Amino acid sequence: MTDRTKNDHAKDVPNAAAYVGGTKLDTSHLELETPEHPYLDSNELIINMGPQHPATHGVLRVILKLDGEKVLGTECVIGYLHRGVEKIAENRTYTMFNPYVDRMDYVAAVSNGLGYCQAVEKLLNVEAPPRANYIRVILTELNRIASHQLWLGTHALDIGAMTPLFYTFRDREEILKIFEKYCGARLTTHAFRIGGCLYETYAGFEKEVKSFLKFVAPKIDEYEALLTTNRIWLERTKNVGTISAADAIALGVTGPVLRASGVKWDIRKAIPYANYADFDFEIPTGENGDTYDRYLVRMVEMRQSLRIIEQAVNGIPEGPIMAKVPKVIKPAVGEIYHSIEAPKGELGYFIVSDGSTQPYRLRVRPPSFVNLQALDVMVRGMLVADVVAVIGTLDIVLGEVDR
Amino acid sequence: MLNYITSYLGSPVTPGQAGNQLWALIYVLIIFAGVSVVVMAMNWLERKALAHFQIRLGPMRVGPHGLLQPIADALKLMLKEDIIPSEADQFVFWVAPLIGLLAAFTVYTVIPFGPSQAVSDMNIGILFMLGVSSLGVLGIVTAGWASNSHYPLIGALRSSAQMVSYEVAMGLAVVSAILMTSLNATGTGTLSMIGIVQAQQQQGIWFLFKFFPLGFIAFIIFAIAMVAETNRAPFDLAEAESELTAGFHTEYSGLRWSLFMLAEYAAMIAVSAIAVTLWLGGWMRPFPNLLNAPVWEFIFSLFPALTFAALAGFALIGTVRMPSHSFFKIQRIGLGVFALLLAFIALVLLLIAIVGHNSDNSIAARTREGIDYIYWFMLKVSIFMYLFIWYRATWPRYRFDQLMRVGWKVMLPISLGVLIVTAIVGVVVK
């Protein structure tokens, strides 16, 4: 046995001198793999999801960093639907600006109007009469159901179940019919005015709302029959897009997304506005904060909304529907923040008045915009298909995100 | 010459076996045209059925109840601008849909619509079928690659992984059915498609019910795997609209896109035909051994005529129920004529059934038999086609990892177990 050294080896192997003594073979013509130039390119795949994409609910653009199917990170690019609503407010009188808020979250226009009107009322220090409040609650809760129905349909469609979309749209139609009969518009309703309501309920309003309640309760069971115990639905939603209560609070997430994480926070109960304090209803919460819990929470919310509407329709008082509000609205100098529980979460209006007829500054706190922040936390490490599911479950409306 | 043309007509075997190439070519042309027409009809039916699942009407404008919609669609797609992205690999982009189409249509050479109603009876029929139909994935992968775009690439990757995984479970399920063909006196099985149906005929039982529940489980495995094989909901990950816009055919438009659709539907029919051949007795009518009296033979041979009569009745009801507005006048007439056409076909089929039953004329009898075979085969296939639509209307889409898990961890062990148990039971029974 001889002790072979590197140099001995070099004698045996022709051209081996190139390996020893620190000299390197010139292998550039072979195109071998080096750290700088990997033979099989294993870089991350960066793809643009949106702004034209079937599942980004409008014009959201999500830049995805993918490792195969796995999501390494996301970045939301928003602003494709920016109309400068807040700036417009500074050049409109308080009354003139009222219809603009309907164009933010256009699937829950009634809620937007309620929040704005109540914020200005707070600024003016007037209170809407009880009958107006009851009408407001009925319409807002109807709108909550309509919004959740639209969410359910599109969310299910994103996950691949085509059919619920058509069922939810069929039933949402009945709500829109009530809106149309009440105020003439189906989507951008402009139902409320500062100080109350402009329109008295039409003849047969109560009857129609009651018959709607009877009509829609079994329909919600029908949606649940299609999805709640569906194996594929469970696999696609359970443990997908999980967010802990602490994270949700830290990110400012509100609405059903927050409640699904187990935080019992609903402004209707926490800081009652309109006359929600009069009604008996429950705040559903989830446990895991995953997509399935958010689904369940929204399904229960629809049923709770039906409860509220039933109590409101049965207890609707007679009386005026408009408080005494000056013709020209000129609030005193000051500022106000008022928030309501919109279908998607906390919808807040911050208004600064300089004593003129137009707001000095109006700032909207849109629930969709804030909830969208949680997207990255929720989808990191998940798969591409989950991004779509999570965008759906956040229930964003780009009109509200961009304003 | 005339002799050559007519020489095949008296033969009871397929033109491929008889070595008559002219008739083989005629069969090929008939099947090609037939499958294309069936795909068009399927297109209309899917849109209509899906619409009715979803409380919509579906196509209503082009022709009565949208009956001419597939033709209008085909025309539109043919006239559309033929776009090839500048970044795409031109040749591969061009050839990809053709590969898919070729694979989907080649399979039909061995599909037995009847004991002699096939282009050819290969002794490796089922192997050929599985092999060629799995070539279809090549079209999808090349399409995704050639598009040189991210979404098609992901779609193609998903599709290739999915098809390869489900092919394994599918193949094992098929093998357990082939094992059953060897349960005869000689103890030799067959891979021939016609031979498999004849084995079921001899054993007097559909393989679906053989060694219950073994045959049934293998059939279920195959029925699931075939949905995954054809990239249909709930396994339509390769073209998941809400995730990958359109998956592997995102960059395709016009005629090329329609070739993909043609290939997809042709593949759906082909895999359904495999399932029918292997487990549902192929061309055999229900209960051929229990209800084998001539009167039952006659009653079952009336079914094709009755089906067309029922379709004519539906069309007639539709005609009567059409709104009496003058706008619908032409559509009304069209639907009426369609109803008459269906009724006429029903009448012809009825005549053939009666004449073929009563006379000793071999041509009439053979025609009647042939119609029966094709009818029962197509009826069984169409049940699967309806199921495909039903799945699509009902279920959400699986996620990629879940799909793989179902394929490898659930279907593969079950199909392997079924195969082993079938083999053991087969030996024990013998």
Can you describe this structure?
The complex is a heterodimer of chains A (403) and B (430). In chain A, α5 packs antiparallel against α6. Chain A contains 16 helices and eight strands. Chain A has 403 residues and is α+β, with helices and mostly antiparallel strands. Chain A has two domains: 6-44, no CATH class; 82-402, Cytochrome-c3 Hydrogenase, chain B. Chain B has two domains: 19-52 and 69-284 and 397-429, no CATH class; 296-375. In chain B, 46% of the residues are buried. In chain B, 70% of the residues lie in helices and 0% in strands. In chain B, α4 (69-79) crosses α12, α8 (150-181) runs parallel beside α17 (400-429) and α10 (214-229) packs antiparallel against α17. The model of chain B has no long low-confidence stretch (mean pLDDT 85). Chain B has 430 residues and is an all-alpha fold. The interface between A and B is medium-sized, with 31 and 31 residues.
Describe the secondary structure blueprint for this structure:
The complex is a heterodimer of chains A (about 400) and B (about 425).
Chain A: H1 6-12, E1 45-49, E2 61-67, E3 70-77, H2 85-89, H3 94-97, H4 109-124, H5 130-159, H6 163-183, E4 192-193, E5 196-197, H7 205-227, H8 231-237, H9 245-250, H10 256-260, H11 267-270, H12 291-314, E6 334-342, E7 345-353, E8 359-365, H13 367-372, H14 374-379, H15 384-394, H16 398-402
Antiparallel strand pairs in A: 1-2, 2-3, 4-5, 6-7, 7-8
Helix pairs in contact in A: 4-5, 5-6, 5-12, 5-15, 6-7, 7-12
Chain B: H1 2-6, H2 15-18, H3 21-53, H4 69-79, H5 90-106, H6 125-134, H7 136-146, H8 150-181, H9 193-203, H10 214-229, H11 241-244, H12 254-279, H13 294-301, H14 303-321, H15 329-358, H16 362-394, H17 400-429
Helix pairs in contact in B: 3-16, 4-12, 5-7, 5-12, 7-8, 8-10, 8-17, 10-12, 10-17, 12-16, 14-15, 15-16
